[in-house]
Every structure is written in C-alpha cells, then in structure tokens.
Amino acid sequence: MMKIFLPLRQHVGSPCRPLVEEGSKVKKGQLIAAVEGLGANIHSSVHGKVASVGENVIEIDAFEDQPDEFVKLSDSDDHMELIKEAGVVGAGGAGFPTHIKLQADLQDGGMLIANGAECEPILSHNTLLMEENPEIVVRGLKYAMEITKASQGIIAIKKINMDAAMSMAKACKDIKNINVKFLPNMYPAGDERVIVREMTGVELKPGQLPIEAKAVVINVETLKNIARAIDDRMPVMTKDITVAGRVGYAKTGHVFLDVPMGMPAGLYIEKCGGYVKPHGEIVLGGPFTGKKGSEDSPVTKTLGGILVAMPFPQHNKKVGIIACECGAQEERLKEIAMSMGAEVVAEKKCKRMTDDGRGRYRCDLPGTCPGQAETVLYLKKHGAQAIITGTCED
C-alpha cells in the first residue's frame, strides 16, 4: 500500500484547515483541507484511507485499486469560483493562489501572458506540455483573459524551444488576439519582471508587480489547471515534473505528466532507472533555486523538478558566499558549504540586490549580472580563499 503525504501549505499564505479525520476513507478529488485566508484548497489525489492528520500534513494510505473517477467540483457557472474551489496556484514554483491573481482588471489594453519560459535549466515538463497538449493551454489562457478582460494574450517561449513554439502557434492561429512571442535563451527568462520587460518593454522596479504594466503572468501548467477546473470540474490533484541528473535516464532526464500529488520523490527516481553512482543529494526544484530533499519528499503543487546531483567536491577551505535573487540564498549556500566541508567566513549579496521596501531583497535588473570584482575583493579581505555563489550568469 502506497503512502502519500499532502502538506497543508502548498501555496503562498496560511496552512489549510483539515476536513478529514484519521481512519476516514477519501476519494480522489475529495476536498480534504480548506483555505482560510490567503491560500488554496487541497484535494486528495487518490482513493484511500486517512492514516494521520498532523499539524502540517495529511497522510493517506492509497488503495491498490485506483479508478479514474474523481469527485467533481460544484456545478457553478462562475469561472472564478471554480478556480478557487479547485485550489489552483502558480504551478511554476511561486504558489500564489490563482483566484487572487485573476482579480486584476486588464480592460483597456491589458495583457495576459502565458509563461512558457521553462525558466530553470534541465527542467522540460512545461515544454512537453506545450508540445503535446497546446490546446489545453490556449483554453486556459482564453478563460483567464475573459476573467481579467485582457485585450490580448501572449504565449512567451524561449527561442530554443522551437517545437513548443510551433505547436502553440498552430493551436492559436485562428485567434486574433493571442500570439506567440519569443524570450531570449537566458536564465532567468521566466522571472515575471523579465517576461514583462521582454513582452511589453516596461522595466518594473523591485517590488513592482506586472499589473503596474497592465499585465498578468501565469505559468502554462497553471493555465492547464484553469481549463480543467472549468471544463472538467477537476480539482488540482496532479503535477507535471522533470526527473533528471544522476539517474538511469541521465542524458535527457524524463518528464512525468500528471503525477498524483503526495507521491514520494524516490518513486520517480526509481522509475527513471534508479541512481547512477556516485551521486549526491536530491534537489527539489531547479538547479538554481532548488532545495535539498529526500526520497520521502512529496510531490506538491509547486514542485517542478527532482534532480539527483553529483557528490559535492570536498574542500576544507575558508569560503565567501554571494547570494542572488535568481539563485541560492544565504541559507542554501551555507548548507552547500557545510556539505563540502568548507567554512563560511564572509557573506555578501550581489550588488544588484536592493530592498523592495518590504524587507525582501530583489534584483534590480534580473538576467543582467554585474561584475563581482568589488564583492570578491571584500570577501577575500575577510579571509575567503574561494567563492560559492548563486548568481545567474557569472
């Protein structure tokens, strides 16, 4: 019997309130935790029995027999209400509740941008979705445009992903106000401010949201979930993921579409042929912004990648760290240094990082790294013999 773990917080906001008790049977698609305040509903991804209800997670024993049937959403004709009921969030990693984002008013020239950048290197599940099922992305985009009253829709794709671009262009060729436009082949092309800059020419300052440029940016998998909520009355129960790195399918990695949420990462490493030795840690997410995980780490609404890394090289040097919004932050860089056997003696942020006015440091020009000579000299002065950095280009 497979155990799945559904965290009560898979979104920006507060944890959801459990609606089930230990020992109760649940069906696929059943609402098991409700949003309170800012957040998104959580539904069971399997037919099973609740093993435990904790403060942060619901554990379910999945039955061996898993029929395709699921508990459908209400018969409401209110598209926004269906999106909220379905628990749709930013599937690209941000996890912001989509029903909140779609409250934006884009009439009189506003733009709805489908983010198909596949921002992080190695990840390829968004690209495969656009290649194999462009119609569902277009349907979701049309619904989002109707809700926000957007005048035009743009599908933003990197030039390198030409097959996906051609597939999307074919799917929207008869829709006058939806077009495909290209992003540069760079990281972090999927950053909202980079997308707005490239698609509209508006340079947003740190802390400014796309709405300042009369735009809303939504990930293509999120658009798929919008279409499913409205067309099929389907709640968010699955996630598209890429598994790659030191696994059996190492050369290309492997994409799994519609993985039931709560499934353990180790299962999909096994499905990729297991580990290639030697191997290091499991990274959840992309190589730049991912976090250390384990075989038991569950697939969530925001998980995009399960990457098996090389072992860390061992250096007992004194190191300095440079944190960047587009990559690893101080906590992650210190974790890497510790895994290498190094001692962190000094730390700095990339000089493009500025306070956005709310205590969060953001890059003032994402995608364009400055020279770090001054920062490196500072770290060297404080005893650093080597540098560990998370900057996007240098």
TrEMBL record:
GO molecular function: 4 iron, 4 sulfur cluster binding; electron transfer activity; metal ion binding
Gene from which this protein is expressed: prdC2
Any one cellular-component term (Gene Ontology): membrane
UniProt cross-references to PANTHER family, sorted A to Z: ION-TRANSLOCATING OXIDOREDUCTASE COMPLEX SUBUNIT C
Pfam families: Complex1_51K (PF01512), RnfC_N (PF13375)
Lineage, highest ranks first: Bacteria, Bacillati, Bacillota, Clostridia, Peptostreptococcales
Gene3D superfamilies registered for this protein in UniProt: NADH-ubiquinone oxidoreductase 51kDa subunit
Every NADH-ubiquinone oxidoreductase 51kDa subunit FMN-binding domain range: 83-227
Top-level taxon in the UniProt lineage: Bacteria
Domain named RnfC Barrel sandwich hybrid: residues: 3-57
Name the UniProt record assigns to this protein: Electron transfer protein PrdC
Keywords annotated in UniProt: 4Fe-4S, Electron transport, Iron, Iron-sulfur, Metal-binding, Repeat, Transport
Coiled coil region boundaries: none
